[in-house]
Amino acid sequence: xxxxxxxxxxALLGACSMSIIPQGAARGNATQQEGEWVAGGSADVPVxxxxxxxxxxxxxxxxxxxxxxxxxxxxxxxxGVGVAAGPDIAMLNIPGAKAVAALQSYRTSCxxxxxxxxxxxxxxxxxxxxxxxxxxxxxxxxxxxFFTSYFETVQVADGSAFATGYFEPQIxxxxxxxxxxxxPVYRRPANLIDVDLGLFSEELKDKRVRGxxxxxxxxxxxxxxxxxxxxxxxxGLEIAWARDYIEFFFLQIQGSGxxxxxxxxxMRIGYAGQNGHDYTGIGRVMRERGLLADGKTNMQGIxxxxxxxxxEGMRIMRENKSYVFxxxxxxxxxxxxMGHPVVARTSVAADRMFVPLGAPxxxxxxxxxxxxxxxxxxSGGAIKGxxxxxxxxxxxxxxxxxxxxxxxxxxxxxxxxKGSVSRLRARRTSPSE
Length: 433
Prior knowledge:
Blueprint: H1 78-81, E1 83-85, H2 96-113, H3 129-135, H4 143-150, E2 151-156, E3 160-168, E4 170-174, E5 183-186, E6 193-196, E7 208-214, E8 217-219, H5 224-228, E9 238-242, H6 245-254, E10 256-260, E11 266-274, H7 282-288, H8 299-308, H9 310-318, E12 324-329, E13 347-350, E14 360-365, E15 372-378, E16 388-395, H10 397-405, E17 407-417, H11 420-429
Parallel strand pairs: 3-16, 4-10, 13-15
Antiparallel strand pairs: 1-2, 2-17, 3-17, 4-9, 5-9, 6-7, 7-8, 10-11, 11-12, 13-16, 14-15, 14-17
Helix pairs in contact: 2-4, 8-9
């Protein structure tokens, strides 16, 4: 497999300091970082624009910050940073095809949306029931009217958005080990435990750790180096074997992908867990150490260096102590953080503390190809903060090119059920707040 097929993974190589558990890829979620491509990267290459994808120049104007509605002082979520009523959906010029795709993805998410806790604080599950009931039988040829009928837009904080892209990579693999296939693809170990710290302290709400039990203590799980050295060998955890360690390393960062098997078939694998260790982006590490020459700070340059310096390259990759476990996917996928399939050019990863997962999102970006209506069905370790998004582009060379070149700024709006802004205003003025 040529390393060129992994170009989209390069933006994932930036440093990422995550609190408690890296949220990376419950699908897997991409862990792309702003600023990874500073010179010579694929962001310097014009992004392919499929026919019919062109949008007019950016026209969405931010709402005056003075109009922000804030409830409480917790600025780690949307309720605290504030939201403002945005423009009418009918004014957003959403193409019919985008509305149809978004309606289908929204419909898919509804089973989770109506019952999950909204970490952003903007809504409750019951707020979405009316639109979800309507979505079940809403005609696709009238999709735009669905959104104008049941939603209103809000700007979160200043609405200033930053978007990257992710895709589903394909590498060579096998369901059995052999001379050419010696890199294990592990399923989630049974002794890997998730702990919701919010169950023990209100101050630790929305914080989690992962580890394993050692006697009466919860201790860290094995890191990448220990796992590479065989800590999990002999436990029957292998679901497949990859041919190339470096390509599998980048597939782990994406969190899901495809294994091209020797018989010509394809095995799809998706995120099943992570060892709880912080993610470290090796691209930034290598740049800080001066290992990459000018013009070689892109994916191809990084891979070339790793292959030319295998011993030191392995040590650098081991500095990313995070390790992702997989499961075989036999249905649609890859799966997002909501447990539902993400859809190319429709699903987007967002920070669940600022966007209710399952909510439609409208982007107006410098890269016009990212403009339009998306559905927040995923989250990611580096997708943190208000208006930070990671757009999903599917699989294949074009998807890799677009995802690798996606580093765009603009404005964002979140669609909430009608009446949400009024309820937030009432809460703001409530004596209890």
